[in-house]
Amino acid sequence: MGFDENIEMCGELVVHEDTLENIRANMLKDHIVNDLAEFFKLFGDATRLRILYALSLSEMCVCDISEFLDMSQSAVSHQLKVLRQCRLVKYRREGRNVFYSLDDEHIQQIIHIGLEHMNERQADGY
Predict the structure, then answer these.
(1) Distance CA 120, CA 106 (A)
(2) pLDDT tens across 75-88, in order?
(3) Fold for domain 45-123?
């Protein structure tokens, strides 16, 4: 099979009004799309993704996350603040230590689904 440089284009111009009508009626509002895009951007940073994956395995204190990632506590703290503000992680204090965990099971599910997708693509040779 040869490479088709125009694969993203229609071979003939036909507008499917019923499809467009359905999509327009059910499309997300702009502010929701923007919020969702911001949400997924958080998963686009390798450091934050490592933190989220580690927290999917166990609750961790800042010291442990810092050691695991070989990063300063300040740098880890900054990333955790971003994740906390977006409600991806939560924390609890125990004495002088602060322990972080995922905010809810949805975050773990998103990571799991992403990993499943990547594993399937690799198995299919992509």
Answers:
(1) 21
(2) 999 999 999 999 99
(3) Arc Repressor Mutant, subunit A (1.10.10)
